[in-house]
Amino acid sequence: MGETGIHSLRILNSLGALRAWFRHRPDVYVGANMFMYYTEAHPADVVAPDLFVVLGTRKEERRTWKIWEEGKAPDFIIEFTSEATKGKDRWFKRGLYEELGVQEYFQFDPLQDYLKPQLQGYFLEGSQYQPIEPEFSEEGYLQLKSLVLNLYLRNEGDDLRFYEVKSGAKLLTLEEAEEELARLRAEYEKLKKQLGA
Asked: What range does the domain containing 88 cover?
């Protein structure tokens, strides 16, 4: 199913932020909208999680994720949900991810179509998902802690952002990182001129 422009942007921003966060970890793969096959004997058994993270694997790119070849399901999945996908995201995918042993499952509803609260998360306890208790940031935003990622997921209006647990620093999107790099280069050039270099 196609995504709205808002959903696509949220997925791409989150993908970029998490790939940057795990860039020095050769044992972490971050993927998005990739076919994930979960039954070797039945090729029609497939889903495409909006965004997922797998720990303890190879970083290399793949065309698809076949659980029986990779040896495991993702550890973290988030679906950027909507009115059109709510049944599949809330019931089918939640049950499937629970059965496959996905440690954490999150849902974010950027258009506030139906999900109250707009950001929800679950962790696997035994063989069943339990809700992650929401917290609030100092600024009053709803946030959920991911133990898999060691990050907070924060609901900021129609946006989903990631924050480091320890420092509280916001993970930048690719666009924000490019802007910051341009700013630092400009400062460097200005400093060089001031020093007469």
From this structure: 5-171
Residue 104 and residue 54 in contact, taking contact as beta carbons nearer than 8 Å: no
Residue bearing tokens 């320890």: 166
Listed in sequence order, the residues at least 6 apart from 70 whose beta carbon sits closer than 8 Å to its beta carbon are: 54, 57
Residue 193 lies in a domain: no
Residue 75 lies in a domain: yes
**Would 145 be classed as within a structural domain?**
yes
Type of residue at 9: L
Give the CATH number, domain containing residue 156: 3.90.1570.10
Q: How far apart are CA 59 and CA 29, in angstroms?
A: 5
Q: In total, how many domains does the chain have? A: 1
pTM (predicted TM-score): 0.90
* Residue 161 confidence (pLDDT): 96
**For residues 174 and 13, is the Cβ–Cβ distance under 8 A?**
yes
3-state secondary structure of 31: strand
Closest CA to 76 of 35, 110, 124: 124
User: Measured between alpha carbons, how far is 143 from 136 in angstroms, rounded to an integer?
Assistant: 6
Closest Cα to residue 50, out of 104, 91, 103, 89? 89
- Please give the angle made by the CA atoms of 60, 64 and 69, to the nearest 5 degrees: 80
Query: Is 159 within the bounds of a domain?
Result: yes
Two structure tokens written together for 119: 């950001």
For the stretch 78-116, pLDDT in tens is 999 988 888 899 999 999 999 999 999 999 999 998 999
